[in-house]
Amino acid sequence: MSHSPHFSEPPKKHLGQHFLHERGIIDGIVRAVSPKPGDRLVEIGPGQGAITFPLLDAHGELTVVEFDRDLIAPLTEAAKSHGALHIIHRDVLAVDFTALAADGASLRLVGNLPYNLSSPILFHVLEHADVVRDMTFMLQKEVVDRMAAAPGSKVYGRLSVMLQAYCHVTPLFDVPPAAFRPPPKVDSAVVRLVPRAADAIGIDDAKVFADVVRDAFGQRRKTLRNALSRQCDAALIEAAKVRPDARAEQLPVADFVRLSNAIAASRA
Ligand code: SAM
Q: ipTM of this predicted complex?
């Protein structure tokens, strides 16, 4: 839709605006979503509608969340020939996704996210993970690599553990800078996230879990015994069947869950 005369504003850097124009990539995203009748689709950051209008053509109805006031009128106008577009003009970090699913729907989220906000958006959405069926997001490739990394990998870290604890993470395909206007400085990738069922996650206290993961990786070079000295002693780590002299970067997600549950239980 970048040819539309209605979208006359230049891209805004502070809003992370890099508009997709490569047909093949746009089609790949629509195929990855493959909307089925009855799906409740929500796009974060529709911009000039590169993904929005093909999705609308495929599905007939779509909710979008856009912060840039200059895009609201052109989106409304251009949508008329495509289908029912519900526009929420708001900062996505202030959107209550649970309210969007108040009628019992489960949400399918899509977005070429503003890269400067991708982590806050991911963590905000995860707070509503119980109403989200899946997410198909374009992110910096480096972020997708970190999200999907396995223990022992150089990029395995806090983001890997937090995401994998709550979601199945599947990288789908890479996207070069030339697919966007203006091109970003970094490579991008599309990833699918599917929230795990609440009873499969097994985390007893989400705050303790997040604190343990943060502290463990905050002191990456230290052993768990030292990195977590504010949280617990070595005996408790051992009782959770985790080696106190291991380092966070070697620890599987399930070990973080066991360890944080043991710490939460010791405080109860
Ligand atoms: N989906 C379009 C595309 O692929 O061409 C635009 C993607 S662009 C990378 C990111 C979009 O997110 C922009 O439209 C930008 O205005 C919007 N955006 C930035 N910050 C936002 C926020 N806090 N809440 C909602 N939308 C935001």
A: 0.99
